[in-house]
Amino acid sequence: MAQIIDGKAVSAAVKAEVAEETAKLRDEKGLKVGLAVVIVGNDPASRVYVNNKKKACEAVGFQSYEYALDESTTQEQLLDLVNVLNRDDRVNGILVQLPLPKHIDEKAVINAISPDKDVDAFHPINVGKIMIGEYSFLPCTPAGVMRLIESTGTDITGKQCVVIGRSNIVGKPQAMLLLQKNGTVTICHSKTKNLKEICLGADILVVAIGRANFVTGDMIKEGAVVIDVGMNRLDNGKLCGDVEFESAEKKASFITPVPGGVGPMTIAMLMKNTLTAAKQQAEIE
C-alpha cells in the first residue's frame, strides 16, 4: 500500500517558510509584499480560488489587492487595468484569474502582464526561461508537484518519468522541470499509442489529463510515485482525480490524494513566487 503524500502538510510548510522570510524582510529592510488578483465576472469556482488566495496572502503577511470586474468588462478596460498594476510599486505580483469571459483574449492579457510581476509564470518570456533553465518563477502547479516529489525523498536523477497531459499550464512545464532534475521524461496525451505500456515503465507518473479516474492500478508500475493533478466532480458531487485512487494505491509507493494533494500546493507556490518577485524588484538577494 502506498504512503499518502499530504499536500496540506507540505503546503503549510511552504507557507510557513514564506511567512517567516516576509516578516524578516519587513523588519530588516522595510519590504512590504503585495499581490493583485483580478477577477472578471461571477464564475463560482473562480470566486472560491480568489478567496483562497486572499486568505493565503493574509496568512503569510502579504497585502492583497482584489479587482473584481463586471462580466461586461471589455478587453481594453482589462488591459488598461493591467497596465496600471504594472506601474504600481505596491504590487509585486499580478494574477488574472482564468478563465476569462469569451469576449476577452486570454493570450493578450497574459502577454500584457510585466514578466517581472507574472507570478503565474505564463508570460512567453517566463516560459522561455523555464525551457533554458534560467527562470525566476515557475508555474505554481508544476512547482508544487516538484516539492511533493521532493517530500518523499525520491531522487529524480535517472528515473523514468511519464507526464500525461501537454497543457501549457501543467504538462509542458512539468516535463521541463523533471528533465532539469535529470529525469528521463516521456510526455503522453490523447493521441499517444500504447499508453498503458508507457505508464507501466514509469518510476514517477504525473497525471494531468482532466479525465476522472482515467489511470487505473493496472497501468501503474509496482513502487511508482504517482502524482494526480486532476480535479473532477462526479455526478454524485464527489471530487476525484485523474487516477483511480483505490486500485492505484495498491501499486504505488507514494500517491497524492484528491482533494488534499496537489491542490493546496498551487496557492503555496504562488505565495513563494510573489515573495521572489518582491525581492527581485527591491534588488534583495
Q: What is this structure, in a nutshell?
A:
The chain is of the alpha/beta class and 285 residues long. It has helices at 7-29, 44-60, 75-87, 106-112, 124-132, 140-151, 171-180, 195-200, 245-249, 263-281; strands spanning 3-4, 34-40, 63-69, 93-96, 160-164, 184-188, 204-207, 225-228, 232-233, 239-240, 254-255.
Q: How would you sum up the major sheet?
A: 6 strands, parallel
Assign the CATH class of the largest domain. Alpha Beta
Termini separation: 43 Å
Helix content: 40-55%
Structural class by sheet pairing and helices: alpha/beta
How much strand content do the residues show?
A: 15-25%
Give the tally of β-strands.
Answer: 11
What topology, given as strand order, has the largest sheet?
Answer: 1-11-8-7-5-6
Q: Total domains, how many?
A: 2
Tally of helical runs: 10
Cα-based radius of gyration, to the nearest Å: 19 Å
| Apparent shape | globular
CATH fold-type name of the largest domain: Rossmann fold
Low-confidence stretches: none
Q: What is the mean predicted local confidence, pLDDT? A: 96
CATH architecture of the largest domain: 3-Layer(aba) Sandwich
CATH superfamily of the largest domain: NAD(P)-binding Rossmann-like Domain
Please provide the ordered H/E string of secondary-structure elements. Answer: EHEHEHEHHHEHEHEEEEHEH
